[in-house]
Each structure stands twice: as C-alpha cells, then as structure tokens.
From TrEMBL:
Gene3D superfamilies: alpha/beta hydrolase, Immunoglobulins
SUPFAM superfamilies linked to this entry: alpha/beta-Hydrolases (SSF53474)
Gene Ontology MF: a single term: hydrolase activity
Protein's GO biological process: carbohydrate metabolic process
UniProt xrefs under InterPro entries: AB_hydrolase_fold (IPR029058), BD-FAE-like_dom (IPR049492), GDXG_lipolytic_enzyme (IPR050300), Ig-like_fold (IPR013783)
Protein name in UniProt: Acetyl esterase/lipase
Native organism: Jatrophihabitans endophyticus
Key words, A-Z: Hydrolase, Signal
Signal peptide: 1-22
C-alpha cells in the first residue's frame, strides 16, 4: 500500500527534521506567533492529547506535476478508522501557503484526528502573474477529498468521518466543497474561520448596496481578487457571468442534507464584514442546517477568532469531534417517525406531536423534524426524541402530511407519510337578554343577544335561531361572533328556549337551552 511502503522512511526523516512533535518547535514571530502560542498552550494542557509521534509526508492528489496540487498528511499509522480533517489555507485566492494553517493542523492532530493540509492552485495576482479560476480551486479541493477517501486504508481513516477547516478564502473553498455535496457523505462538519462565504457581498459593500456597511480598502482589494477569480465583473453583465458568481457564493449550495457548519468571525474584521457571516447563518437556519456562528469582539481578520487556546478553541474541537463520531451500524440507524396525534380540530394553532425512535435502541435521536402539510412546512427540534410542531390553520377534511426526520451525525434521515383529519372547532354559546330583567307586557321589541366564541376566532355569516318548542321566535345573522334577535311579546313565567348556531366552514354547529324568566 502507498503509506506502508514509505511509513518507516518518512517517520525517520520527519523525526530527524524536528517535525514529529510539531507543538514543540520554535515559536513563530509577529502576529502569527500569538495565535500559535494559544494553540500550543491548549495542546500541552489537554487532558488526553495524542503524544505519539505522527508520520508526516507530502503527496500529489491530482494527476499532474504541479507543486501546488499537493497535500501534506500528518497521521498516526497505528490508528484504524480514525476521523480526519482537511485544512485549507486562505490568501484571497491569489496567495497563501499550507503553513498558514499549521496551528490548526497541530491542534487537530494532537486531539486524535488524521490531518491533511491542502495546497491548491492560485488565482492570478499576488505572487504570480497567471493562475486558475475560482471554479478550478474548488475542483482542486474536491479532487483532494476524493484522493483521501480512495486511500482511506493507507491513512487509517474512516472515509465517512471527515471534516473541513478553512480560513478566509479557505473558508470559502471549504464551504463550497462541503455544502455542494460533491465531497460525498464523508464530510460531516465544516469550520469556516473568517471565511469569505459570500464573495459577491463584498461588491455590494463596495457599491454601497448594504445599509450600514462601508467597504474598507481591504474589502475593496479582496473584492478585486474575487472578480479576478470569476474572470468577470460584478454585477454580472451576462448570464454566464451571473452563473459563475452564483456558484462562487457558498450560500447558493445550502440544502437540508448538508453537514453542519461552525462559523467564527471577528467583529473588528476590516477584510470580511461580520454581516456576511450573519447572513450566511440565517441562510443555514432557513434550510435547517446545523451549526452556529461565534462573533468575537475586538478581533479582526485572524485565525485567533477560533484558535484562542481557550473556550472558542475547545468548542471547535468539541463540534468536530461530535460531528465525526463513530458511525452507527446500519441495523441501528433506521429511524421511525410516529405521529401521536391522529385527529386535530381546526384551531388557530393546531399541534402535531412527533416522536422519533431508534429501532433497537442505543441512541436518543436529536436534530430537526419537518412536517409538510398542503405545501406549508413547519420545523422543530427534537428534545429527548420528541417535538411538538405548531401547524398553520387547516381547512376541514383529511390532509396528507409528510413528516421528515433530517438525521444526525449518528442516525440516518427518515420520512413517514400520514393522514391528518381536521374537524371544525366546537363553539361556546353565551345568551343574555337586553335589558337583563324583563317584565310581562314590555317584552316586545326587547333583544336577545347570542355571543359565539371559538378557538378559531369570532365567526361571521352563520344564522342563529331561537325556538320555543316548534314555534320560531326569531332569527339573526352572526357578525363578528354576535347576533341580536328582536323578541316578540312573551307572557309572564318561566320559558325554555332552544338557541341554535348553524356553524361555518371552520366552526361547528352548536345548540344550547336558554331559560328565560319574565316577571309580572
């Protein structure tokens, strides 16, 4: 196998060169040193760091001799079916090198991940006069992912337990590759650190289209590099150019089946506006994609927003570790959806109770459940395997409902189709006379007021009738839940009248007995 033939030689060379324990190497200088110091401190004090000397080797992942189409693998040859992370450097698509994300490589490796640090071809600009397009950079990432999965046995990884980490433009490429689904089921988590997830928004800022946002000189330069990567201006002058810009925005690829995304963004970032990450998070929420956004005050365009050596770094590791947890055997990953409530009244906020259970037990489902009724979708999150979905008002009759569990890192998605029977709401009838006390000889022309109340609101349009035995005493139409009937002459004594409400499309018919006493 590829790795086994070179493992011993590479391990010896790596150790001699001082890279076997990357966190003990000399600290970097300047701003990069601060970030690296945080990462080193966290690794050195972790409860269970992996201190085994890793094997480090560089491989071509494409069928070319281009030195930019290489990846450096850092792995423990003794591991089997291990989780893995691909790290992608930034540099405005025109510059940068894998060493820029070495802190992240060291961190993930120290916590049990096999790590692949990716180099990719650059767009023209920066340090080189010619280059490739943004689409070709994305293709490089996808090609590298396919190569890693193809050599899973060589590197001791589970091809279905991968994650992507990208910084700045690398965050854009990580999101494009992971959210588009081209990376296959192997990618379970994406971490974007100060990522340019929506490059077109930079040009909206440059042109003043986003209220409250002002483009800085750094944003303007980054927008120019994005235009170079697209080989056309923004706004796009033609359909082909619009298509390229659309595909360059990772938000355009978001779907409900995507892996979870963790975003880190500095509020003082003058290169990538924090509003970009906030809008991207809203787009993820609308598609019900898991993950979160962490906004960091006083920090700018730096990986320190994630690699702080403290709580944010720990949260990132926890996120990736949970999302790349060991796969559940197929026999345990079948999920059934049970609708507890089989019949609903047409209330203003009918509730559908859903329970998700794993056949065979062994896990409590988490994640999102969606119910689609009459083309309208309602989403809720499971708590201890259950959720109550508040539906829109339903018309009377039988409705076909599709209930879908979106799955989790450990459980497969599952759907169920059920019929939901919606009935008219039962009203309450309140009857009174006006005035409250009636006397014989003075009842003619007085009023009987019938008020109709229901969970569906105050009905309008139905008829209310009042009878004494078979004799019709009066009738009126309900307006905003109220009907007023003019009484005929009524003799003194105690009278039992039947008050009937005819019902509407949403409120059921109802009757009540009203006892009227007329004094002498």
């Amino acid at each position: 196998m590829l790795v086994r033939r070179t493992a011993a030689l590479v391990a010896g060379i790596a150790t001699a060169a001082g890279v076997a324990l990357a966190w003990t190497s000399a600290p970097a200088q300047g701003a990069h040193a601060a970030t690296r110091a945080h990462a080193v401190a966290a690794v050195g004090t972790a409860a269970t760091p992996h201190r085994v000397a890793p094997t480090v080797a560089t491989y071509p992942y494409a069928r070319t001799d281009d030195p930019q189409q290489r990846l450096t693998a850092t792995w423990d040859p003794a591991r089997r079916a291990a989780p893995w992370v691909v790290t992608i450097h930034g540099g405005s698509w025109v510059k940068g090198r894998p060493a820029d994300v070495q802190d992240a490589v060291d961190l993930f490796r120290a916590h049990g991940f096999q790590v692949f640090n990716l180099a990719y071809r650059l767009v023209a600009g920066g340090t080189q006069p010619t280059g490739v397009s943004g689409a070709e950079q994305r293709k490089d990432v996808l090609t590298a992912l396919a190569w890693i999965r193809a050599h899973a046995a060589d590197f001791g990884i589970d091809p279905g337990r991968g994650a992507l980490y990208g910084s700045s433009a690398g965050g854009n490429l990580a999101a494009l590759a992971g959210l588009a689904g081209d990376g296959g089921n192997g990618i379970r988590a994406i971490v974007s650190v100060a990522g340019v997830v929506q490059p077109s928004r930079l040009w909206d800022d440059v042109h003043g289209r986003n209220a409250g946002e002002r483009a800085t000189s750094s944003m303007t330069r980054l927008a120019g590099h994005a235009r170079t990567a697209m080989a056309c201006a923004y706004p796009a002058p033609n359909a082909a150019c619009r298509k390229r810009w659309h595909a360059f925005d990772a938000a355009s690829a978001i779907s409900a089946h995507d892996p979870a995304v963790l975003l880190y963004q500095g509020l003082a970032d003058r290169t990538v506006p924090h509003q970009m990450a906030e809008e991207f998070r809203r787009r993820l929420d609308r598609a019900d994609v898991g993950g979160s956004l962490t906004l960091v005050p006083r920090l700018g365009h730096t990986q320190a927003v994630a690699l702080d050596g403290g709580a944010r770094q720990a949260a990132m590791l926890r996120f990736v570790r949970q999302r790349t947890a060991v796969s559940v055997p197929p026999a345990l990953s079948r999920v059934s959806v049970t609708r507890v409530t089989r019949s609903l009244t047409n209330a203003v906020r009918p509730v559908l109770r859903v329970r998700v259970a794993v056949r065979g037990g062994g896990s409590t489902p988490s994640g999102a459940v969606t119910a689609t009724v009459d083309g309208r979708r309602t989403t809720g999150r499971l708590v201890h395997g259950r959720t109550d979905l508040v539906l829109s008002r339903l018309t009377v009759g039988t409705h076909a409902v599709t209930v879908r569990y979106r799955g989790s890192p450990l459980l497969q998605p599952r759907s169920a189709a059920v019929d939901l029977h919606s009935h008219r709401v039962a009203p309450e009838l309140v009857v009174r006379t006006r005035p409250g006390t009636l006397h014989a000889g003075r009842t003619a022309g007085r009023s009987l007021v019938v008020t109709t109340r229901s969970a569906a609101g105050r009905p309008t349009g139905a008829r209310v009738t009042v009878r004494s035995g078979s004799r019709l005493l009066g009738t009126a139409t309900v307006r905003s839940g109220r009907a007023v009937i003019t009484l005929p002459a009524v003799a003194a004594g105690r009278h039992r009248w039947r008050v009937s409400f005819a019902g509407t499309a949403t409120v059921a018919p109802a009757r009540t007995i009203y006892v009227l006493t007329v004094r002498r």
